[in-house]
Write a structure and sequence with these properties.
The protein has about 400 residues and is α+β, with helices and mostly antiparallel strands. It is built from twelve helices and 20 strands. Helix 1 runs parallel beside helix 6, helix 8 packs antiparallel against helix 10 and helix 11 crosses helix 12. The longest helix is centred in the last third of the chain and has 23 residues. The radius of gyration is 21 Å and the shape is globular. The structure holds flavin-adenine dinucleotide and 3,4-dihydroxybenzoic acid (DHB).
């Protein structure tokens, strides 16, 4: 097989990149190790920044997001038994949309297939060759047969555990990592939303987050030990923990319902630089991870591929590669800002096992400052909606 751009991974980064390239008349093939049913059912992110919504809309894949997503103009911070609203729209003129990542994936897969895009599911044994030459290639197994794609470029959109980052030449690489030592326990619940807006709660027992999915499904998270197991948490234990952490002086309580999905994710910050070596580029979680508190992961994947698509378009239309060569620097400016915000939100709202009494008081005081100072609330709001 021969194509212009070989893309590894059909997450938001890989699918959107393939679609943006198609809109610019550039051919690509996407290789995905899982099945279509699997990628369309994996529960992950939920919050889309305004800029992400704009990119999806301009790419012609925003119709269902607009119709079914929920536009949110504010978020709440809860601590000390009280909830405090941050008015995102008043402070920034922008809003966010709650629309699940797997729905974005469904929209992108449908758009790629409608345009006869080449999307190969359930491939295995992906290996990269000659990425430091002008003729890179990818070998893999599909439907029991060995296959190979020759391409001009290979783009690693295969997430944190993929094969493309390890294929980067080691010279000159620098990785940055922070492990937080805790995780999030996430559940999906059959019940009406408990709140019109997301609630980020700090409690001495640990962080909790109230989010939504649809008028009949809630998405809830609480801080946990990343080595814990979902089987240790009966539904009764989960509700007791959520009620304790979301305690409210005004009688508000989180709505209970049937829990139909449970999962634990670890929290880490990670950036791997540079994001390019020769003809191999990384985008999305293959190059960087944020803890989910700032809701930035999928948004960063989208902004990476937006920059990369512009670079590839310039290369094919004008025969110039200055944008491609500037990709790492352009992408990293936004990535580091999102890394900072996600780290800051995580530090502000979680309990840390090694925190001294002084550090705990500083955390409480900082929360008070954020909800009482318009300047600090604006800084949070700007970062949350991605207004930078
Ligand atoms: P991925 O979505 O990880 O996609 C990579 C794809 O590559 C996968 O489909 C994988 O199967 C495939 N792949 C891997 N290895 C190979 C291989 N060797 N060969 C072929 N294919 C391969 N982000 C937000 O913006 N907002 C949120 O609210 C938010 N909440 C989150 C909540 C949770 C519980 C989690 C886990 C994440 C959350 N995120 C959030 C982060 C977001 O989900 C990720 O940042 C996003 O999925 C990154 O997209 P990606 O395309 O880079 O990678
Ligand atoms: C959701 C996930 C997040 O990481 C976040 O900060 C807000 C909402 C969600 O899955 O709904």
């Amino acid at each position: 097989m021969r194509t212009q751009v070989a893309i590894i991974g059909a997450g938001p980064a890989g699918l959107l990149l393939s679609h943006l390239l198609h809109l610019s008349g550039i051919e690509s093939i996407v290789l995905e190790s899982r099945s279509r049913a699997d990628i369309e059912a994996t529960i992950r992110a939920g919050v889309l920044e305004q800029g992400t919504m704009d990119i999806l809309t301009n790419a012609g894949v925003g119709a269902r997001m607009k119709a079914e997503g929920a536009l949110h103009h504010g978020v709440e911070l809860a601590f000390g038994g009280r909830r405090h609203r941050i008015d995102l729209t008043e402070l920034t003129g922008k809003a966010i949309t709650v629309y699940p990542q797997h729905e974005v994936i469904k929209d992108l897969v449908a758009a790629r297939l409608a345009a006869q895009g080449q999307l190969l599911f359930e491939v295995s044994g992906v290996q990269l060759h000659g990425v430091d030459t002008a003729t890179p290639s990818v070998s893999f197994v599909h439907g029991g047969e060995a296959a190979r794609i020759d391409a001009d470029f290979v783009i690693g959109c295969d997430g944190y555990h993929g094969v493309t980052r390890p294929a980067m030449p080691p010279q000159g690489r620098e990785d940055f990592t922070r492990n937080y030592g805790f995780g999030w326990f996430g559940i999906l619940v059959e019940s009406a939303p408990s709140s019109d807006e997301l609630i980020y709660a700090r409690h001495d027992r640990g962080f909790a987050l109230v989010s939504t999915r649809t008028p009949t499904v809630q998405r809830l998270y609480f801080q946990c030990d990343p080595a814990d197991h979902v089987d240790n948490w009966s539904d009764d234990r989960i509700w007791a923990e959520l009620h304790a952490r979301l305690e409210s002086n005004d009688g508000w309580r989180v709505n209970e319902g049937r829990i139909f999905q449970k999962g634990i994710i670890g929290m880490r910050s990670f950036v791997s630089t540079p994001m390019q070596a020769g003809r191999l580029f990384l985008a999305g979680d293959s190059a960087h991870i944020v803890p989910p508190t700032g809701a930035k992961g999928m948004n960063l994947a989208v902004s990476d591929v937006n920059v990369l698509a512009q670079g590839l378009e310039q290369y094919y239309r004008q025969g110039r590669d200055d944008r491609l060569q500037g990709y790492t620097d352009a992408a990293l400016r936004r990535i580091w800002r999102a890394e900072y915000f996600s780290w800051w939100m995580t530090s502000l709202l979680h309990t840390f096992a090694d925190a001294t009494p002084f550090q705990r008081e500083m955390q409480r005081a900082e929360l008070e400052c954020v909800v009482s100072s318009r300047a600090m609330a604006t800084a949070l709001a700007e970062n949350y909606v991605g207004a930078f």
